[in-house]
Amino acid sequence: MSDDTTTNSSDDCDPRQDVLLNPTEDLAGPDRYPRMWNMSAGMAFFQAVVRPDTPDRPEYVSVPMPSSTTTDLESRGARIFAVARWNALWEAAQFRRRFFHDDLDANADDYARLPPDLARIADLGDNNIVFIPRTQTRYYDYAPLFHLLPRATLDRFGLPMLTGGQWPFWAELTNPDPYLPADFSQRLSRAWGATIWRHLMPGSPQIAFTKDDPIRILAHNLDFWVPAVTEAMEDEMRTWPIVDTDGPTGPVRLSNGEILEGVTAGGPRVGSDLWTGEEEAAEFVELTIDAADKTGRLRDILDAVRSHRVHDDFSDRWSHAKEDFDRTLNHKRSKVTVTFVELDDTTPVHGPETEVIGQLACSDFLTLLNPRDREVVVVLRSGVTSLTDVGKILGYSSHSAVSKRLARIRDQAARFFDEN
To answer: Potential cystine with 354: which of 141, 323, 339, 350 (Cβ 3.0-4.6 Å)?
Structure first.
């Protein structure tokens, strides 16, 4: 019994439990993992928030957070609490800094203070800033993307299962860096690219393109997708119910008596899970791709790249995209087969567009195009059609020189139609 008690006590203190998820737990099942959740601003002691008519898109700023081993517990607690309260005001967007000054009577309390370095950021003006902990792996920078990946994808790219993600960031129980691979962001980049690729290039696997292909690079660019997933999350949360509180509602009056234009006060929204399980996460992946049109003009980029494809974008693997590219290219170039037809007993008629090579005259190529067979018929319009006879007339000892002349005519015909 003594040994068992000691073991349980050790497990309770194991910091890995705050970061890593046991694959055998119920929370690791496909109906419950992956998961992302949000906590209501009401939990941060806000009875009311302000909602801009036109919220700015969030910008992420990484800030140092005190270690769990620090001895200055008071400053650590104050910083954690300040960051949690700041981020909880996601609905206030660019006006959240005003909750940490005396501008709003309703919120000018003892909690309306920021650590000096965060206060300097707030003093830059009304900016929609989200604070995230600064870590070596940049886990918190990309946490919303990471927590959309199913377990099979994590296993494929050598990534661990982590406990449910939180957005915006509230508090860190344990630094995740020691439990993540040193190349976490690179692995996540490959995993995310593999997850969204079929939405970007349906029917064409990544391996069918070179590593320098623009769409392939875009799919792996995590910084491009963070604003999109943030947009998708906020769009979802804005549909959640508003908590019925006794806080102020309607127009927002500042401490100097002026009305803050473009905002309305009201109770905070409830907190909840953004997604739980693989099915809901997959739906959010699609929402993220849709949101990328607003945050990064994704569709315009895809259309521009597809319209300006070159052979170097493709690998030697077959794909629908490569087939479409070749078909379009060949259609534009109009492949042409050049043949010769010798017309006996005809009188040579040379018009103004007759092509003369050396002493051989050939009728205009365009007028002799056979649309059905896609052939150019180059006619020797001289009445003498035997190559040997033509050679004698032109002073050649054999028909070989004439054959070479005709080959040159054939090549010129092919180039003519390639260029037109």
So the answer is: 350
Cα 167-170-176 angle, rounded to 5 deg: 85
Look up tokens 């037109």; give the residue: 420
Residue 59 is inside which H or E element, if any? Answer: strand 59-63
- Which pLDDT does position 338 carry in this prediction? 53
Does pLDDT of 244 surpass 80? Answer: yes
pLDDT of residue 113: 80
Contacts of 408 (CB under 8 A, 6+ apart): 357
CA atoms within 13 Å, Cβ hemisphere of 355: 19
- Tell me the residue type at 158: G
pTM for the model stands at: 0.70
Cis peptide before 181 (omega within 30 of 0): no
Would you state the pLDDT for residue 355? 47
Buried b (16+ CB within 10 A) or exposed e, 150-161: bbebbeebebbb
CA atoms of 219 and 197, how far apart (whole Å): 7
Report the pLDDT value the prediction gives residue 155, as an integer from 0 to 100.
Answer: 96
Which amino acid appears at position 393 of this protein?
I
Which residue, among 55, 107, 56, has the nearest Cα to 86 in the 3D structure?
107
Spatial separation of the C-alpha atoms in residues 299 and 238, rounded to whole Å: 25
Q: How far is CA 400 from the centre of its chain?
A: 61
93 within 8 A of 58, measured Cβ to Cβ? yes
What secondary structure letter does DSSP report for 36? E
Query: What is the total residue count of the chain?
Result: 420
